[in-house]
Amino acid sequence: MKETIAEYGAKLEKLSFKLLELISLSLGLPGDKFFDCFENQLSLVRLNYYPPCPSPDLALGIGPHKDPCVLTIVAQDDTGGLQVKNNSVGGWVPIEPIPGALVVNVGDVFQVWSNDKYDSAIHRATVNSQKERYSYPFFFFPGHDIMVQPAEELVSEKDPAKYKPYNFGKYYSNRTRHDFNKEKVAGKEIHDFKISD
């Protein structure tokens, strides 16, 4: 099992670099613009299990959140339960599982790199009353020593930087330490680094 998970993670890391290249090109940046940010990266695969819940309306598998990474790639089983917040339709939209397909979310780091041209999706996982659910997310993290800031090519007088630079390792450590408490903690979310208009 350990070897299978390691192989799965290695393949998704390779896919993540390809996706990062294509997304960078979509912004008019060199495809390898951010590759150096991954020299000491600690990307990971997580195996999520959600048992059946007799009252799914009273429980969430994972509450609303944004991912603190560059990209998240998720394989879902056929039960479903992943939902994305869509303000234009006024609520939560289910991401229906498609056999053999992967779900890709842009994370907070890429939102900052893109100077808000890409948005890190708010999403959650719901439980099912009848069936257990599995998901296998891969989180593509940069190195902990990098400074995260908008790409200089995407900053101009007409479109100034929307974020102050921040150290990814400190941000991630602060976020994981305070993920489950409700108190307001500076430096836990990317909006803490937002530059006011």
Automatic annotation (TrEMBL):
Keyword Metal-binding: yes
PROSITE patterns noted in UniProt: FE2OG_OXY
Signal peptide positions on this chain: none
Classification via Pfam families: 2OG-FeII_Oxy (PF03171)
Gene3D superfamilies: B-lactam Antibiotic, Isopenicillin N Synthase, Chain
Protein's UniProt keywords contain Lipid metabolism: no
Official protein name in the record: Fe2OG dioxygenase domain-containing protein
GO-annotated molecular function: L-ascorbic acid binding; metal ion binding
InterPro entries noted in UniProt: IPNS-like_FE2OG_OXY, IPNS-like_sf, Oxoglu/Fe-dep_dioxygenase_dom, Plant_2OG-oxidoreductases
Domain Fe2OG dioxygenase: 41-142
Keywords (A to Z) from UniProt: Iron, Metal-binding, Vitamin C
